[in-house]
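Example 5.3 — GTPase Obg
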Amino acid sequence: MSMFLDTAKVDVKGGNGGNGMVAFRREKYVPDGGPAGGDGGKGGNVIFKVDEGLRTLMDFRYNRNFKAKPGENGMNKGMHGRGSADLIVSVPQGTTVKDPDTGKILADLLTNGQEYVAAKGGRGGRGNIRFATPRNPAPEIAENGEPGQDRSLLLELRVLADVGLVGFPSVGKSTLLSVISNARPKIGAYHFTTLVPNIGMVRVGDGESFVVADMPGLIEGASQGVGLGTQFLRHIERTRVLLHVIDMSGMEGRDPYEDYKAINDELETYNLRLLERPQIIVANKMDMPDSEENLKEFKEKLYANYDEFEDKPLIFPVSGITRQGLQPMLEATAELLETTPEFPVYDEEEFLQEAEEAYYGFNEEGPGFEIARDDDASWILSGEKLEKLFNMTNLDHDESAMKFARQLRGLGVDEALRERGARDGDIVRIGNFVFEFVD
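Solution (predicted structure tokens):
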């Protein structure tokens, strides 16, 4: 049985930008040449790219960390560091990328070759050539490269099967799938049979083929999270045609029509859109003694709900065991697939708006820092914006440190510390870096 994994959590990190360089020209007969430190190169992005050949997220069970290479550092003589190549990570068609904390959808990767930048590489730091001004023609300032974006993402794969087999456990779905396709599911008559959807390719004749997924046996209440719960129902969302398998033998003392209604109620509760899918009714186990009689009764009950002008659902009597009636049922399925469009899983506008809100970036509103007080009475500064400025500061050079002090003042850090009661000479910390507050 092919293992099928529908979710995977991965960590992605864009490459850090290369550091800018502080260097000066050393030319014969030129005292104190001008600045000659080049910029660092850009770090590589981590990019998810859809590959039609992949069917599962299996690869991500063994490799969860994806890290792009950093950019090269700047060099002297004004030479820029080389930027790094992007790291391309292949994902299957139909992969949804989510933020694991908020559950927001960041990307829905549906078409072959589609790309999504999962983690941006940092830009290279500027070398001291960039900081020369008429007032300061030989600056000792260079920036460190910007850190690459670093985050965890949740990948979800809704099965991109064209056809879903639905029905109560033990109606013979697994047997049917093993007979019509190349799938080799485990087969057993217990009520929680399929814990992962089995997927099989079905060939119907001259080159026509489609993918069938056996949806785990639904039990009433699954849409409320009872039993196997909604994670399995999710797999049905992208199928275009449902084959509703019903046990016509009545062997377990069940009424085939009641089963049919119960499963449809289940589909409706989970997501109204599922009932928009065309359904073919597969009357299975027709090799059993009472099946003919039960099928007749089933048709009477079913057709009583339709008037004569309505399209009635197609019913195909089959037997998974003796293989009778399978060919006509498969041909009808292939025909229906040709005329049934794909169903979008989300509302396009809502998705775009969500994606926009979830876009990675600093919240430009509000302060870019937080202040806390440590037990030893020192002040601790933190915050995404502030830490990014700090990481890009090359503290080996006094001028760079002065520039950082000006940036802190610009962010309003001095003012905020003063308001909190910081005094001249107080210790202030950013990460492992310690300095004194000067009022």
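Remark. The first helix runs from residue 59 to 62.
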